[in-house]
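Contributing new records

If you add data, match the layout below exactly. Sequence lines come first and carry their own label; structure lines follow with theirs. Keep one chain per record. Anything else will be rejected by the validation script.
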Amino acid sequence: MTRLTDEQLYAGFIRAGRRRTDPPLLEREEEQAQLRDVVAALDEGRPAVVSVTGRPGFGHNALLRWTARLAEERSVRVLRVSGSLAERDLRQGAVTQLLAMLSEPVEPSLRALRGHRDADGLPGLPELLHTTRRTPTLVTVEDAQWLDAASLDWLQALVRRLSRGIPLALLIGRTGIDPYGPDWLADATPSARLTRHLTVRPLSPHAVAALVERICGTPCDEAFAAAAAQASQGSPAVLDAALRSFADAGHRPTADRLPQLCSLITGIIGDRSGRALRGLTDEATAVLRALAVGGDLLDFPLACALAGLRTVPESRLRAALEMAGFTAPDGSHARIRLPVVRGRILEDMPAAERADLHARAAHLAYRAVADDEDVARLLLQAPPIGEPWAVHTLRGGFGAALRRGDFARAASYLNRALDEPQAPLERADISLDLAGAEAVAAPDASDRRLTALLRTPGEGDAWAQLRVRALDMGLARGDDSWGRRAAVQALATAHGSERDDLIALYWYAAQNRPEATDVPTPGVPTLPEHPLAPTQAGIRAWQLVARGQHRTKAAELARRTLEAGSAAPVMPRLLAARALWLTDAAAEAEDHLAAIVAEVRRRHCHPALARALVLSAELHLRGARLDAAERAADAAQQVLPAAAWHPLAASHLMAVRTVIALETRHHDEARALFDAPMPPGSEYGAHWSYLLFARALVAAEEGRWAVAVELFKESGRWLLRKHWTNPIVLPWRSLAARACRTLGDQEQAQRLISEELTLARRWGAPSALDLAHLCAGPLDGRKPSAGAGAPAPRELPARLTYAWVLADLATEELTRGDRATAVQLLTELSRFAVTHTSGRLAERVRWLIAQLQQPAAPDDDALPGGWAALSPAERQTAELARRGLGNREIAEQLSVSRRTVEHRLSSTYTKLRITSRKELRARSRPTEEDVTDAV
């Protein structure tokens, strides 16, 4: 009886609402040929036993019905038996069905069975064999997996009695245990000559295409057929039902309708699997649930242990579940075939049982050394475990999710970790990491969590450091207003080094106000002139740099902060790195910045990492390392997506991306960034002036000099309101002066460059002085040249700006006819190797070299009237226009937009007081060669 119970391990799919006509039998020619031979052999008195097995919906019962119709056409008696869930526990249910079709010869046995009395022996079997000798008979048994044990005994006895001269064929269709047919046939020990085992296979894409054309009335392409075959697992029944609903909805079998078909297929598979699950034994159901929860991590023996399997052999159950279509083999694992099946398996479980199963699966997977994140996924659905390994595993999953950029998932792991019992400090530390992940996925939740951490009243160094880190992380998000309020509240109870750090962080936030102020909020001390605390030293270093005071002292204070390493908060260290960089110690500052980036990356502090990366991008950009700048900017946006940037910090990334687009000749992108709206409140951020400066560069490149001047000056006004006067912070005066000179406003240009020189001398950095002198030369009537005391190009912080000034001056001198000075400036420019990275600058240098290689024109010493008023870019554009090139061709030659060409020509016409290209040709200097050949 145990063996018979094993036969009921699975049920297969219930054929609810069975169609009156079967789906067409496609790719079943081989099976049909064998079944045709079986029917033909009955005329010769040869019996047969045929098992037809396959996964649910693959058409094994349809083959039996086809064979029955064929037999009836040949006058063979057909006796049909069908298993069902309703009769599964009905003793001799299948026998009763069969005997009911024999009528008179078996009436006594039939009455006994219908009266629920035990019939003697094998009721009706002798009578069936007796009548079969005179009447060839085909017995079909559909869904044999549902048969009761007594009926299986009866069929075994029938098989054992078959021999030549008894023209009876027994066809058994079922969701089989193995490809060799029902194992109870082995117990019947029929002759090998009598038995055949047929296994139906899934449909190929070719057969699916034929089915699509038959049902939808139009052919489909190979991709559609392949996708339908994959989604349905090649099941004819599923495909037939789905395609009929698909066609009834008026859809055509085209690629754009695949989602609708796949949705129908998923629903049908889900319904069929849900019904099939009701026919499973308790142990089979338990194993399936264990596989649905942990089957991806646990091999089949472990899944059986999780399910508590005791009475059924594992191999037998595994084969049954595979042939029933629930699972697919994968080495030592058995995987649930489809997500919809997995969902149906678990949805009927009580919530408490499902949670407990996830907890036990997680424990087994942890002991089996599964990946942390895989175990963490199980723990998300489990109740608190109460063991240290659970928190450790969830934190491991958190790190894995962060590394691939799935911030919402990372936050969910730490939220779950907070459900576990643990010490208050450990819980607070998890909350801090969670706030870092939420800064990306849910910024408002992150702010609330950080505020709560700052109000935590824990005592000791560990708690003090945690509060400082929480404030530092909030400031990394960019909300300086929040930072000032939070710092004031935390200072009320702080003391010792925590108080020093909180004071520094308050002044970090305060220095980002739109207006400069040294007046603290009541209860907040002023920042010392000569601070000893490393965190305060970094803030003070930036104050000195921004105001252009005490360069040596500023560098000393910045180094003190940076040398403190991770003992100091991140944001003051970033400020110190910027300050040190602007003292001309660029290489040293960048080394410290790289160490900060590596540290915060290890700590998974994404807001601080994003701020460090965008600062790195800015410094690479100003140092003319455009490839490195672009990589850092991309990494910053990947670490902290644009939507997660606080408005007060967003302008920094936008400014960097704008200049990168400009220098890499992506003019359309630069223009789009110029026009892009910024979040409300961005204009109050510490980097708003840099964004205005970047926009001014775009306007200058497009020849809109009046707009450029106003943007440069607005950038400067923003800095001056904060008393940030140092020209090395942003050289807005120098570039505004050059734009004013282009517009003919010599007086304003002279005033701006004089201020720049005075402030550069006060700051004393060689790079700032040399840049100011270089820009002042044309205004003073001196021949432009690089300063003798200028630092080596590799150490020069503002290499990109310096290189562009050299290129513009070389263009001016060449246009004036001073080829010797132009060559000198071009030679100086070559020391910087900037043209290897800046495509825009490289294009200018190529043009200059080509012009210098041309023979000097006879009138090189005499510049046409008004020509000197043009900017280098305008001269370049005007010469191409003089040669007859249209705006589109000029834009292609110079790698700029047509709009930029139009702006430059409009400005040129205004300065030269002309209105057409004809007049331009009359006012331009003739050249012997077309300049476009040199560009």
